[in-house]
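[job 4471] stage=fold_predict status=RUNNING
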Amino acid sequence: MEKALKTMIDNMPEKTGKSLEQWKVILDKKSFVKHSEAVKFLKTEYQVTHGFANTIVTLSKDKNNSEEDLVKTQYQNKAELFPIYEALISYLKTLGSDITITPKKSSVSIIRKRQFLLIKPATKTRIDLGFKLKDKLTTNRLESSGPFGSMCTHRVKISSIEEIDGELKDWIKEAYSKSV
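[job 4471] inference complete, writing structure tokens
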């Protein structure tokens, strides 16, 4: 388990009034069609902050799946992409200890105060990185968000580890710095 996520779970009782297991029981009694509905429920009914609500809902959905299992499932039949994912995570960890890495069913959200990067194995040969870079012009490589819609402002397609170059790292750093 990522250190930041473990810290968040450890701090949950103090910050939200309940442990993760207690939140799971509450959510288990409800049936939400969308992830966002469950997050809104926790924020509205229990005044849980967005970051905690998102983490609670994410970890409550797949009761039998650990964080590692979620990532493993994403890269099943896409093994050649996993080293790219690992290199991205390794780089992200150098930016600061205030990053939360939150795997979901089909992507991994990278959060500081808010999500600034989304890592998604889009095809068997490509990872899509979704960025939050408001007011940044697009380029041939730094495209508009495409299928990410309003979750992200830009997208970069990555098919090899060599594409994690200085330019890409600069965009990641910029998104990180703007996520406060």
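[job 4471] summary: Residues 3-61 form one domain.
[job 4471] exit 0
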